[in-house]
Design brief:
Number of helices: 16
Bound molecules: ligand NPW, potassium ion
CATH class of the largest domain: Alpha Beta
Number of domains: 2
Distance between the termini: 22 Å
CATH architecture of the largest domain: 3-Layer(aba) Sandwich
CATH superfamily of the largest domain: Ribokinase
Strand content: 5-15%
Number of strands: 18
Largest sheet: 11 strands, mixed
Helix content: 25-40%
Length: about 500
């Protein structure tokens, strides 16, 4: 089962059902959230001498803040708590209890007394998912002041002022880290909000994935533990035919790198046989750099022998609409369409209905607009993607940080692996090769996308660890085999 992403206003009902099921109190759950935050904190090795300022609101987000302040104090940190509310009668019941539990030694002040020119660490527990309507004037002032703070800012659950499921309209806290509870709030995964959320960490507060079942949501969060269940198991008697024969249609004069990257990725992902359809004049390039690949120069008449087809990286546009048409006529299984193939579909929308059902399109944000039109923001993009997938019975992978796998049935799965070091030329060609390879190994389109997208991100993390901004697409390919090791897939 995969973690569901609920909306902010479903959180209260989820919490209520959880505390009933586990026979605990909501105060216990708050303590669990605070303890989870402390575990994350310890993993960061923050300086023990750094002053820590905890900004607390009057709701349960503020309650988390009081509990965190107490636990950090008990661990030997220098804590000051700043109130972002009038008087204590405004506190929610659980916040009120944790307010009273604050050790006497912790200095309590009003936010107006804080010198924002200070350094240190500010923990933002002002407003969480209980944010509603438009920010009131004083709240805007508090948030703008927090944003003028010179040290590090850690937001608890969500940066204060950011709506949990929508685009930001006013101001919100700009965090260096956001430590969110139970599930990532949808808006934390929107690229437009990356600047506000900073590094995202998810803290488990003991709510099982089964407990999300009664709650409706099309959104899911893909994590490491989900992957092995989507993989095929091979036996001792498997032979190269079992690992699939794929056709990669990529590259053109001056862009043969795209063909090399996607074909090599398919091999590293486990394909038994990789054929590359390329211009004959360019054959030496690929045969020298990837000798395991067999080259074809014309589209074979019979395509039924291929277990999967991937088309697009670097193919260019000349006579390629005809090529797409021939592929769609001669092949009825799901295929992978990327890069120039997507741009061509944007220019020839009449071809959309001919794409084999269940096929996978992997656009980046610009390519997305070429087929689906302009969008103002990610929320709108997700809505359009959902309509598109349902209408044409196709799947989309919207590439980026937290790539979104959009399935034909309307589910949308956000990936958790990856790093900004993957924003490099050819990274998408690698993904095309990986997904095509899994399709060819007999995986369903859903399983091929899930394993491909997650392992592509993981390979990027492995490559990026030692190479940082010097990471190139070939490094990602080299790291693909290690992803099988890390996931314990044979
Ligand atoms: N399972 C979980 O995820 C768990 C969740 N937990 C935690 O509970 C949090 C949710 O707590 P919640 O529901 O009490 O609301 P919360 O976020 O504190 O906000 C309320 C405060 O914001 C204020 N405020 C609101 N709108 C405003 C506006 N427009 N402009 C200005 N102010 C505005 C509002 O003020 P008021 O309108 O009442 O005057 C009130 O003071 C959640 O994020 C997580 O941290 C954990 O403890 C346990 C497990
Ligand atoms: K917050």
């Amino acid at each position: 089962m995969m973690l569901k992403i609920l909306s902010g206003n479903q959180v209260k009902a989820l919490d209520a059902a959880h505390v009933k099921l586990k026979r605990i109190s909501s105060l216990n759950l708050m303590e669990c959230a605070a303890a989870g935050f402390i575990d994350w904190w310890k993993s960061k090795n923050f300086d023990k001498n750094s002053p820590i300022y905890v900004f607390c609101g009057a709701g349960n987000n503020g309650g988390d803040g009081f509990a965190i302040a107490r636990l950090l104090y008990q661990s030997g940190f220098h804590i000051q708590v700043y109130k972002c509310f009038g008087d204590a009668t405004r506190l929610s019941p659980d916040a009120s209890i944790n307010f009273k539990l604050l050790p006497e030694e912790i200095r309590l002040k009003s936010w107006q007394e804080f010198d924002f020119a200070n350094g240190g660490i500010l923990i933002d527990c002002f407003i969480g998912v209980g944010f509603q309507g438009a920010l009131r004037t004083e709240a805007q002032e508090i948030i703008s002041s927090i944003n003028s703070f010179q040290g590090k800012v850690i937001s608890v659950d969500i940066p204060s002022g950011l709506p949990s499921d929508d685009m930001l309209e006013g101001v919100c806290v700009k965090a260096d880290y956001t430590v969110t509870f139970a599930f990532p709030k949808l808006s934390l995964l929107f690229p437009e909000h990356g600047h506000y959320t900073g590094d995202l960490a998810l803290v488990d507060i003991g709510i099982w994935e089964e407990e999300y079942l009664p709650f409706e949501s099309p959104y899911f969060f893909l994590r490491k533990k989900d992957i092995s269940g989507f993989h095929r198991k091979y036996s001792r008697f498997s032979h190269k035919g079992d690992f699939g024969k794929v056709l990669i249609t990529a590259g053109s004069v001056g862009k043969m790198g795209a063909a090399i990257l996607s074909a090599k990725s398919a091999l590293r992902t486990g394909s038994g046989l990789v054929n590359a359809l390329i211009p004959e004049s360019e054959r030496h390039i690929i045969q020298i750099s990837v000798p395991e690949v067999m080259c074809l120069f014309d589209l074979p008449k019979d395509l039924t022998g291929f277990d999967a087809i991937g088309i697009g990286p670097g193919i260019g546009f000349e006579k390629k609409a005809e090529l797409l048409k021939s592929l769609f006529e001669g092949y009825s299984n799901p295929m992978v369409l990327d890069a120039d193939a997507i741009t061509l579909l944007g220019e020839h929308p009449e071809l959309l209905s001919q794409i084999p059902k269940g096929s996978i399109l992997t656009p980046h944000l610009k390519e997305f607009e070429r087929i689906l039109g302009k969008t103002n923001n990610h929320k709108e993009r997700l809505g359009k993607a959902s309509d598109f997938c349902k209408k044409w019975k196709l799947n989309l992978v919207i590439k980026g940080a937290n790539s979104v796998i959009c399935l034909a049935d309307g589910r949308q799965i956000f990936n958790s692996s990856g790093t900004s070091y993957m924003a490099t030329a050819g990274s998408g060609d690698v993904l095309t090769g990986m997904i095509t390879s899994f399709l060819g190994q007999g995986y369903s389109p859903e399983a091929a996308m899930i394993c491909g997208v997650y392992q592509h991100g993981l390979a990027g993390e492995i490559a990026g660890k030692g190479k940082r901004r010097g990471t190139i697409a070939s490094d990602i390919i080299d790291a693909i085999p290690e992803t099988f090791v890390r996931l314990d897939i044979s």
